[in-house]
Amino acid sequence: MTADEYHADPVEGGSLSSSGARRLLPPGCPALFQWERHNPPEPKAHFDIGHAAHKLVLGVGPTIVSIDAADWRTKRAKEEAAEERRHGAVPLLRHQYETVHAMADALRAHPFASLLFDPDHGQPEQTLVWRDAPTGIMRRARLDWLPDRGRGRLIVPDYKTAAAVDTDALARAAASHGYACQDDWYRAGCEALDIAGPEARFVFVFQAKDPPYLVHVVELDHVAQRIGATLNRMAINTYARCVETDVWPGFADDVTHLQLPAWYENQYGE
Q1: CA distances from 118 to 57, 105, 111, 152 (A)
Q2: Looking at domain 19-251, does it have CATH number 3.90.320.10?
Q3: Chain segment 234-256, per-residue pLDDT in tens
Q4: Domain segments of the chain: what residues?
Q5: CA 233 → CA 181, 246, 254, 259, distances in Å?
Q6: Number of neighbouring beta carbons within 10 Å of residue 139
């Protein structure tokens, strides 16, 4: 199915995705999840580089169009970009267009990442839908890439662009964006649908958006995976309870006792 069909939720009665599960938990809440489900946000231009890089790496996605301009300040550039967006394309400035092609070339030159996205041994943008055994709700996931089975242990890659791909930066990004939850969610889908057993591995293929467009393939450790599994179960149980009661609570219905961050207390404690 297309990306638009997937994000519109193809499951009758509704289903829960990994990003939706993360929105149910702090710093989100069920009320925000429910609002955004019925009021999808408009596409944001700062995601264009990532979307275009995905298209070139995975081989599927929206058309990428180069706008012959150095920046978006001119009326002509803005009008051309708006017209391309109306047709479902991703408009990029000249230098951005050259950047995403250079990124794709750098990834294909990486000895391990290039094998993970080998077009002869896998399929891009594959949708998984399965029923959660403990709660009965439907879950869904959209893998960037599903490798062919029968080639040893299954390694499922997910491609992400980033401002920095050093180990510290990626650890902060993984914690901030809930990548441990995504890791567990995707592996659970593969296991539930008998695509792979518990031994399947899930790796993130991060690529920097600045030259020399370095690639860093990482796998979260067992502690992160256990945390992701625990948070996912909390989100699934919350979703199941909200569906059953049709009550989607916000952050609190009463006064919250607020504790300031530790750094603030350390700074002014004395």
Answers
A1: 10, 13, 11, 15
A2: yes
A3: 999 999 999 999 999 999 999 99
A4: 19-251
A5: 10, 19, 26, 27
A6: 24
Query: Would you say the pTM of this structure is higher than 0.70?
Result: yes
Quick one: DSSP state of residue 267? H
Q: How far apart (Å, rounded) are the C-alpha atoms in residues 52 and 104? A: 10
For 157-178, write each residue's pLDDT tens digit: 999 999 999 999 999 999 999 9
Six token digits for residue 257:
């006792």
Instruction: Give the list of residues 6+ apart from residue 107 with CB closer than 8 angstroms, or none.
Output: 57, 113, 114, 117, 205, 207, 213, 215
DSSP calls for 210-243: STT--EEEE---HHHHHHHHHHHHHHHHHHHHHH
| DSSP state for residue 112 in the 8-state scheme | T
Beta bridge partners of 155: 201
**How far from each other are the two terminal CA atoms of the chain, in whole angstroms?**
59
In whole angstroms, give the CA distance from residue 199 to residue 219: 13
> Which residues, at least 6 apart from 244, have a Cβ–Cβ distance to it below 8 Å?
none
* Phi and psi, residue 163, nearest 5°: -70, -35
